[in-house]
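Handout, page 2. Input:
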Amino acid sequence: MKKTAFKVLKFLAFFAVGAFIFWLIYKDQDIERIKSVLRNNVKYSWVVVSLIIGLLSHISRTLRWGLMIEPIGHKPRFINTFMAVMVGYLMNMAFPRMGEISRCGVLSRYEKISFTKLIGTVVAERLVDMISLLILLGIVIVSQFGKMIRFIEGNPEIHGKIISVFSSPYLIIGFVALFVILFLFRKRFKHTKLFTKIIDILNNFKEGFISIRSIKRKGWFYFHSVFIWTMYYFMLYVIFFAFDFTRDLTPIAGLTTFVLASFGMVAPVQGGIGAWHFMVKEALALYGVANENGIIFAFVAHTSMTGMIIIIGLISMVALPFVNRRNDIVVKENDRSKEL
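Output:
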């Protein structure tokens, strides 16, 4: 009961933060003007193209995850892997950071794969994604250095928060205290059941994490790693052509907006709501897009991407038991035959 209450409170807290940021962005806007632009000035065919590109990125992520799972001795079915990925995206809409655990849980259940090993592959996948995002950030900083300086100067709270996190005395004291405790009681701790359990989990975790080195089709792995982020970029950039005030912006402007928006998506709020909108409008402002137009762009782009994830995620949750019903029946029949 306490765990359920905590999860509910956590959900409400994250949602409240995102909703508050969203409200701050849109509270002073002319709602009637926004409605008029949405009805008459948006070329929704480009939004449809964006969603198709987004679907391709999800398919590519599914195929890449399958390549990472093969070295741990399993080859999951594409349909189960794809639906697990989409359920993971859906769960992130409810509880930030729960998507990775959810998709591993789904695939572990329906493909009978070790949950901890799957977590290892997802952590390795996230490492690759982080490296990819940092490379794109480096490209943006080098090519748009002046604009990035303007962004930081215009949002000093972002720079201040980053510095405060890494220079926090509580963080430093906490790490030192943990190290001292583990060092002083290391011999006693090694003989506990908790230590043994942690070691077992870490071994499974390590096996999944090093799966990158053991991937047989590394060429395809690298291809999908590039393809995923290329599609993510184009998913946002093509929406530029849906509006008169962004269609003439350069591809590098699209890349800058995409990278900054990606960091907004990392914020611990459901689906990046509020934070993503803020980063997008600020990025577009660097290229002369008025604030009231930037938030309309952010609303259309985020709503379309979120809507697709919700729809496909819900369909996946409903379809998973039916897709795997036949396999469950076969397994039960095999078990009965073995007993006889």
